[in-house]
Amino acid sequence: MKIAHFSRWGFLMAAAGSAVGLGNIWKFPYITGEYGGGAFVLVYLLTVVLVGFSVMIAEMLIGYLGRRDGVGAFEDLAPRHKERWKYAGFMGLSGTLVMFYYSVVIGWIFYYITLSFGTLPATIPEAEGIYNNLMTQGVGTQIFFHTLAFMITTAVLIRGIKGGIEKFNLVLMPSLIMIIAGMLVYAMGMESFPKAVSYMFNPDWSKLTSEAFAVAVGHAFFTLSLGMGAIMIYSASLPKDSNLVRASIFVIVTDTLIALAAGLVLFTFLFQYGAEPAKGPGLVFISLPAVFHAMGLVGNVLAVLFFMALAFAGLTSAVSLVEPMVQYLIDRWDMSRTKAAIAMGTFFYLFGIVAIFSLSAETSAYLTWGGKSFFDWSDYLTSNVFLPFAGLVMAVFVGHIIEKERVASVLQKDMGWFYPIWRFSVRFIAPVALFVVMLNLMGFIEF
Ligand code: PFF
What we know:
76% helix, Amino acid/polyamine transporter I, two-stranded antiparallel ribbon, 2 strands, mainly alpha
């Protein structure tokens, strides 16, 4: 076994770094805008507390007890049918599939950092023009910045858990937290701040459609990095005698606070300058740059800081999305870390280029099926199908398959009276919730 150990703080930063990602700062505000604010946010928050927390502990536990790659961990921990359970470990592959689009979006962010140093678009239509141009005509630019994202991610992975992932997170995470906190303080001084608060926290239940509900639940899992083996592989490197409950709480609280802060900052800025909150995926790339322009020079400074924070968030999640398969190749295929990281990096890099072409004007028709581009499919399948399915498998595995005593030996002491509640949640509530949400997200049922 070639698993290295995190320091305690290193683990917390790395796991929080995985959770805090594009999901928090890019996706959360725009889906909140699309699904109408308060009620959506409330469903998301409730899911985090009621189900996300239990599944986070379950995923950590598999990694912590297994102390190796995901496939090996399932194999070792299953008391029977080991050869079948090991396939559950391949959920780690879906993280690399996420990277097909995730790395491309990190590339867009790099591009927007460069834009922020110059003159930002003065109006929303102008900003829309820049964004659409990048999507449909800017293949070369996108490939250039996607290459940069690939190179950074792979370089960190080559350096491994201690020298790469831990160090990277120890620098980037505190910087990101400081930038977002600083921007929140700045936004709090603005007139529109109370409006943003009420938009995010006053539920209008009529806006909570069945789809909105399922998306909110799905997002809660995505943003916590559950169901893709990332938290699991990091937990395999936890120091002995770690407190998984405390670590889960830390990760969840950090992730939630950053998402809420990012949402508040964005909506305050948007309301202050009369921009629309429901702009879809282009929200931070279209509405926000125009708002930054309206702020003058301060806007440029804020734009650079904001996109840097977004890039940091994306990169620290990116490494965690690929690490499960890197560790798999090291453990199972006996590859060196360098080779494994380059192999997985090249894999997502090439498909990332396909994702870029699937958005471009000339080639999108060849790379679009059923109304979804290759880019959209990699998001759709990973978030709506693989993730809830893997979450379900993990909950069932920890709740029903691993020996009770083994689970209790790690968790009972740290949980106390909460232990039976957690166990009930992992055994019954989480699997049922994930199953229903998966069917809903795939369009089989509506409620
Ligand atoms: N949690 C990350 C985000 O919010 O962007 C995305 C992510 C990372 C999902 C790692 C899953 C994962 F395993």
